[in-house]
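TA notes, week 10

Several of you asked for a full example with nothing omitted. So below is the full record: C-alpha cells for the whole chain, then the designed sequence directly under it. When grading your own attempts, check the secondary structure regions first.
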C-alpha cells in the first residue's frame, strides 16, 4: 500500500515557476523600477495566514543545496529572514489548495510579501517564486528545479539576495504530501553587516572534507541586512577560504558573506573511545570497564552474534582459554577447546576435567593461584560470614585471591561455590592482570 501510494505521488510531481522577468512585466513591478512603493494586486477574499517563520530540516537543506549550486557558478549565496520565511511557508501551505502562482483567493503570489510586511523599498526590487509538490526531500526537489529551465533561472539569478525556503507537510488526505516553495527577493538597498557564526570552533581531522564537516556541524551564519534585519543561511564550504584538508593540526579558516568576514577554528578530533561491539554491554553496566579491558587485551571475546553474555556462567574451558592467552598462547580456531585443555593440563593449572561445566569462584581463584605458582600471601577470611563454604583445597587460593584484591566479596560474603559469571570473571581477570601478573 505504501509503495503504491509513493508511486502515485511521484507520478503527480509538479513544479511551477514564475520568473522575475514575467513579474517585471506586471504593473506593480514597473512602478517599482522607478523606485516607488509597490502597488500590490487587488485582493478578493481572505486567506488564513499560518505565520510560520521556521526553517529547519528539509527547508534549511533546500537553502543549503541552492547556495551550493549558486556558489559553484560564482554567485552569492542567499539568506532568509523571518518575514520572508513566513511568506515561503505560507506559499508552501497554499499550494496544497491551488497549485499555482496565483493564491487561493486569486491574487498574485507577491501579495504574500505584503501580508507579512516584507520591506520593499529601493531603486530596484525583484522577486521570483518556485513551487513544487510531491517531492519527498530537499535533494529531490532542488534537483527537480535545477532540471527545469525556468526554475533554474530563478535559482541562478544574480539579482537575488534572499530566499525563503518554504516547506509544508500536507494532511494525509491532501493530493500532495509535501509542498515546497522558494521565494526569492533582491533589492538595491540590501547591505550586509555584522556576520556571526553559531559555532566558532568545530572538530575536524586530517583529510576531512570541509563540506561534510560543515553539513554535520550545521553552522548557522547570521548577518544583518540593512533593509531586512537579521537574516541567516547555512555555512557551506564555498563560503570558506584557507582550509587545508591534509593539515593535521588546528587551523583557522575565513568565512565570507556579503563582504563581511568571520573566523572558524577547526581543531583536531580526539580519537573516540572504541565502542564495545556487544549489544548487551553498555556504559551503564558496572562491568563496562572490565569487559572493555578483557576485550581490548584479547583475553575474552564475545559469544557470537554481537553478544558478550555478561550474566552467563564462565565455563572451565573458557577460564583455561583466558589463562592460556595471558600466558601468550594463541587459542582460537576450531580446535580452541582442545588447545586450551592441553595447555591447562600441561601448565598444571587444571586437571582438564569437565570443560563445559560452569566454574565456581573458588575454582577460578585456584586456577589463577596455581598459574602464578601458588604464592604464599594470605589474607584472613574469618571476617566473611560464609567462610565455612570455602573448600579445603581452595582455602589457600581464596586467601591469596582476597589478599591480592581479586575477590572482594559482597555483603560480607565470598560466595566461593557460586558460579562466576562472565562479567565477574572479567573483573577478576582485570585485577589479576593489573595487580598480579602486570
Ligand atoms: Zn535584504
Amino acid at each position: 500500500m505504501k509503495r503504491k501510494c509513493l508511486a502515485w505521488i511521484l507520478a503527480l510531481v509538479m513544479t511551477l515557476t514564475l520568473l522575475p522577468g514575467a513579474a517585471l512585466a506586471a504593473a506593480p513591478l514597473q512602478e517599482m523600477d522607478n523606485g516607488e512603493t509597490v502597488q500590490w494586486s487587488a485582493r478578493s477574499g481572505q486567506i488564513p495566514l499560518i505565520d510560520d517563520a521556521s526553517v529547519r530540516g528539509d527547508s534549511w537543506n533546500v537553502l543549503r543545496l541552492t547556495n551550493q549550486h549558486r556558489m559553484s557558478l560564482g554567485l552569492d549565496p542567499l539568506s532568509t529572514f523571518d518575514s520572508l520565511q513566513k511568506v515561503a511557508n505560507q506559499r508552501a501551505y497554499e499550494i496544497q489548495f491551488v497549485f499555482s502562482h496565483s493564491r487561493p483567493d486569486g491574487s498574485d503570489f507577491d501579495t504574500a510579501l505584503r501580508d507579512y510586511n516584507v520591506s520593499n523599498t529601493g531603486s530596484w526590487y525583484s522577486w521570483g517564486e518556485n513551487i513544487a509538490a510531491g517531492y519527498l526531500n530537499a535533494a529531490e526537489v532542488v534537483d527537480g528545479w535545477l532540471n527545469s529551465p525556468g526554475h533554474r533561472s530563478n535559482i541562478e539569478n544574480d539579482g537575488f539576495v534572499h530566499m525563503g525556503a518554504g516547506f509544508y507537510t500536507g494532511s494525509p488526505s491532501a493530493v500532495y504530501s509535501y509542498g515546497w516553495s522558494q521565494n526569492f527577493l533582491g533589492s538595491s538597498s540590501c547591505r550586509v553587516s555584522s556576520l556571526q557564526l553559531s559555532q566558532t570552533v568545530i572538530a575536524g581531522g586530517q583529510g576531512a572534507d570541509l563540506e561534510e564537516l560543515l553539513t554535520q556541524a550545521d553552522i548557522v551564519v547570521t548577518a544583518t541586512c540593512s533593509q531586512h534585519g537579521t537574516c541567516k543561511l547555512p555555512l557551506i564550504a564555498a563560503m570558506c577560504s584557507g582550509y587545508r584538508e591534509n593539515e593535521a593540526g588546528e587551523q583557522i579558516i575565513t568565512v565570507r558573506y556579503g563582504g563581511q568576514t568571520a573566523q572558524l577554528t577547526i581543531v583536531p578530533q580526539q580519537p573516540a573511545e572504541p565502542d564495545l561491539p556487544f549489544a548487551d554491554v553498555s556504559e551503564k553496566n558496572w562491568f563496562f570497564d572490565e569487559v572493555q579491558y578483557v576485550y581490548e587485551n584479547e583475553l575474552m571475546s564475545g559469544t557470537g552474534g554481537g553478544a558478550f553474555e555478561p550474566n552467563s556462567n564462565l565455563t572451565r574451558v573458557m577460564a583455561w582459554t583466558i589463562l592460556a592467552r595471558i600466558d601468550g598462547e594463541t587459542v582460537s580456531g576450531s580446535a580452541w577447546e582442545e588447545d586450551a585443555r592441553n595447555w591447562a593440563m600441561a601448565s598444571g593449572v587444571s586437571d582438564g576435567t569437565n570443560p563445559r561445566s560452569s566454574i565456581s569462584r573458588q575454582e577460578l581463584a585456584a586456577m589463577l593461584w596455581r598459574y602464578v605458582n601458588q604464592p604464599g600471601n594470605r589474607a584472613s577470611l574469618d571476617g566473611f560470614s560464609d567462610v565455612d563454604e570455602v573448600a579445603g583445597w581452595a582455602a589457600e587460593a581464596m586467601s591469596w585471591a582476597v589478599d591480592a584484591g581479586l575477590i572482594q566479596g559482597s555483603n560480607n560474603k565470598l560466595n566461593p561455590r557460586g558460579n562466576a559469571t562472565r562479567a565477574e570473571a572479567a573483573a577478576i581477570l582485570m585485577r589479576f592482570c593489573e595487580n598480579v601478573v602486570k
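The first strand starts at residue 14 and ends at 18. Use that as a sanity check on your answer.
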